[in-house]
Amino acid sequence: MVYLLDFLMRTGRHAQRVSTALLLLLLIAGCSTKQSPEHTHATAEEYYTCPMHPEVVQDSPGKCPVCGMFLVKKTTGPAVDADTSALPTPASSAVTPTDVQLVHPTFAAETTTITAPGVISYDPRQFERVSARVGGRIERLYVRYRFQPVKKGQKLYDIYSPELLTEQQNLLFILKNKPVDEALLTSSRRKLELLGLTTGQVRAVEKSGRPQLRISVYSPANGYVTEVGAAAEADGALEQAGPLGIQEGDYVQTGQPVLQLINTTTVWALLQVYATDLAHVQPGQDVEITLNDAPQAAPRQGKVALVEPLITSAEPTATARVYLSNSGQQLKIGQLVTGRIQPATQATGLWVPTAAVLDLGTRQVVFRQQDNQLQPVAVVTGARTGNQVQITRGLTTQDQIAANAQYLTDSESFIEPVL
């Protein structure tokens, strides 16, 4: 370019030629200059609509003329950043926080209540097994179906046993030949009692002078008749009614379980306590049990008897066992209950209304006032008491949050959740 200018000047051409050359040089220099690229963003078109009535569309914030809900800001352009979309959109972000009720987290020590769902179950300590003390054949059954109620001393079945017949004959022989040998008589009577005869049955044999071919077996306790063993587990004998597996004419062996009696005057409430609450649940703590199908009924009082040292794999819960009296037979096996356990110590920290926390399953969110808008903020919750929940991380006492997070949440946050 410099050589071109020097050439024109040396040739003595007209000044207009010089000015033209200078203009040409400036254009060439401008084209060769590289401009730094400018980072631009696509501008999204914004509009406002009602989550419940999508036909309502406006170009400015406001409320739905149909239902009165806050209009939600929408965009037709590119999606927002992942960090912004990681939390649900508050419907009130388009308006000032003065349109909603705000609250401050309060620092206090609260007496918390741990709520645990549960179910009424059998008390295995009340099971009474009736086993055959001698081998023989069941001649007659006096109970026919599962869960048939029986009383203590009621006949269950009659059995024919060659062993019992032989021992009765021995007793009668001693009575006839050595009636003065009290030691021998006592030994023979005692053996018959150990084989299942009652004292009255032994006296009846002595009085009649003849052995009894059929010996009745009586119920040792009050309860309901069920079965035991593998057959009971396979058929669900503890969960459904039906005919007994043992039948008249069946043979049994010595020691074989024949029947099982279940007494429900004492039952267990098995409460499922979440792993996060286990540190606050100890044996001896008071528990209030409410029946789910009768919430208006007076709650039952009990104490935690045992916290089982096992967390289930399906749900992160452990079982807390509560013993309940059921003398009136009002509690039924399988009945759903809710237990409320009072921890021994108070929980100290920040507390907010339960409605202020939006539970998304894997995280909890509140809407905090920031720059004259309500912004979603992830928090970590702790204990609960009444309508208050403890916040262990994410807020301070200076923050202001929306008192009702559910009402402020865009319904599309649930249709397309971002967890």
Automatic annotation (TrEMBL):
InterPro entries assigned to the protein according to its UniProt record, in alphabetical order: 3HB_CusB, Beta-barrel_RND_2, BSH_CusB, CzcB_C, HMBD, MFP_Cation_Efflux
- Every copy of the CusB-like beta-barrel domain together lies at 266-343
- The signal sequence is none
Domain CusB-like barrel-sandwich hybrid residues, every copy = 129-229
| Domain Heavy metal binding: from-to ranges | 47-74
Specify the domain of life of the species encoding this protein.
Bacteria
Alphabetized, the UniProt keywords read: Transport
The UniProt record lists the CusB-like three alpha-helical bundle domain at 163-212
Protein known as: Efflux RND transporter periplasmic adaptor subunit
- Organism of origin is Hymenobacter defluvii
